[in-house]
């Protein structure tokens, strides 16, 4: 696959991982797309990764996307249902805001002659659950973008990654126990024994995208799942104690604590059907990669994180 790569969402977990890995690999010309390339996060990354071109683009503004994608060979795309504008549309009844953004990027890429798109998609939870869970819109929207890309196979080559459950979620949803003001509690609606495919998003994502770029014929039109392996949801708490020596425990909270009907349904679905529907196809890809995915214990060691400050 050609070497001029545009990265949508370069300041986020996934896009930032792609930026880091491809920059370190060398041999790639990189263009990072951001709503605000003058933001502190974009400026920090520009200083950290010299030689990367930063351009302004908005996923709701097709002309800006055409301009930003002109001249590139391939584009990595991640969309986010939980952005403010997309959530506002969803609250008003428009559940297709994320699909519209993904379609905008694909259409702009086709318009300016981009050869390939690597899209961060997900399984359809509606399909995985045989129609039981139909309201996990950030799964459905991404899968709908994937289907749209495949429908344009005669105009652009489509590649897809499916990320597992972010290990970073355990950082976000943590607290110090009010009982002893010492134990770190990792809170999630998942059942403690639910097996989930975990992913160290900020490190793992870029290596899988790099593999796709290096093996385009093998990966064309396929979904490459991104995870180091299946673990019980409670394993991240146990791993934290092993890595840091600090007390920790897993705390299951009610599904409804998320405050979003969509997330309530998602956690129900994950407990019953999982992110990948039990698939282990990713393990075959992992064996081929010159990269070792982090275990939960390694994740905590690499972060050097002692726990929440309050």
Work out the oligomeric state of the chains in this entry.
single chain
What does the largest sheet look like? 7 strands, parallel
Mean pLDDT across all residues, rounded? 94
Please write the CATH class name: Alpha Beta
Listing every helix as H and every strand as E from the N terminus to the C terminus, the arrangement reads: EHEHEHEHHEHHEEHEEEHHEEHEHHH
Assign the CATH superfamily. Answer: NAD(P)-binding Rossmann-like Domain
Annotation, overall tally of beta strands: 13
Structural class: alpha/beta
SS field, number of helical segments: 14
User: Can you tell me the CATH topology?
Assistant: Rossmann fold
Helix content range: 40-55%
Strands of the biggest beta sheet: in what spatial order?
A: 3-2-1-4-5-6-11
Task: List segments where confidence is low: pLDDT < 50 over at least 5 consecutive residues.
Answer: none
Beta-strand content estimate: 15-25%
User: Terminal Cα separation, in Å?
Assistant: 47 Å
Cα-atom Rg, whole angstroms?
Answer: 19 Å
CATH architecture: 3-Layer(aba) Sandwich
Number of spatially distinct domains: 1
Overall body shape: globular
List the helices and strands and how they pair.
Elements: E1 4-8, H1 13-25, E2 29-34, H2 40-48, E3 53-56, H3 62-69, E4 74-77, H4 84-91, H5 97-111, E5 116-121, H6 125-128, H7 137-151, E6 157-163, E7 165-166, H8 168-172, E8 174-176, E9 184-188, E10 195-199, H9 201-214, H10 216-219, E11 223-226, E12 229-232, H11 235-244, E13 248-252, H12 261-273, H13 281-288, H14 296-303
Helix pairs in contact: 1-9, 3-5, 5-7, 11-14
């Amino acid at each position: 696959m050609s070497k001029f790569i545009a990265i949508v969402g370069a300041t986020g977990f996934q896009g930032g991982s792609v930026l880091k890995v491809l920059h370190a690999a060398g041999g790639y010309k990189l263009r990072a797309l951001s709503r605000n390339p003058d933001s502190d996060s974009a400026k920090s990354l520009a200083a950290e990764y010299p030689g990367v071109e930063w351009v302004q683009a908005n996923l709701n503004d097709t002309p800006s996307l055409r301009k930003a994608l002109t001249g590139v060979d391939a584009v990595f795309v991640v969309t986010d249902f939980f952005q403010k504008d997309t959530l506002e549309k969803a609250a008003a009844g428009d559940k297709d805001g994320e699909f519209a953004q993904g379609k905008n990027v694909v259409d702009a890429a086709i318009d300016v002659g981009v050869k390939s798109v690597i899209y961060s998609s997900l399984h359809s939870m509606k399909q995985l659950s045989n129609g039981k869970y139909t309201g996990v819109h950030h799964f459905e929207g991404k899968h709908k973008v994937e289907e749209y890309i495949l429908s344009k196979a005669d105009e652009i080559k489509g590649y897809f990654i499916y990320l597992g459950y972010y290990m970073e979620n355990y950082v976000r949803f943590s607290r110090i126990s009010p009982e002893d003001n010492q134990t770190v509690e990792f809170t999630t609606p998942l059942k403690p024994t639910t097996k989930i495919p975990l992913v160290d998003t900020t490190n793992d994502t870029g290596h899988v995208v790099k593999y796709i770029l290096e093996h385009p014929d093998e990966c064309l039109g396929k979904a490459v799942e991104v995870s180091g392996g299946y673990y019980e949801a409670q394993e991240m708490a146990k791993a934290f104690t092993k890595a840091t020596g600090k007390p920790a425990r897993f705390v299951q909270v009610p599904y409804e604590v998320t405050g979003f009907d969509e997330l309530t349904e998602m956690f129900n679905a994950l407990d019953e059907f999982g992110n990948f529907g039990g698939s282990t196809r990713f393990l075959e890809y992992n064996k081929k990669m010159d990269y070792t995915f982090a275990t939960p214990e390694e994740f905590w060691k690499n972060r050097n994180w002692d726990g929440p400050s309050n």
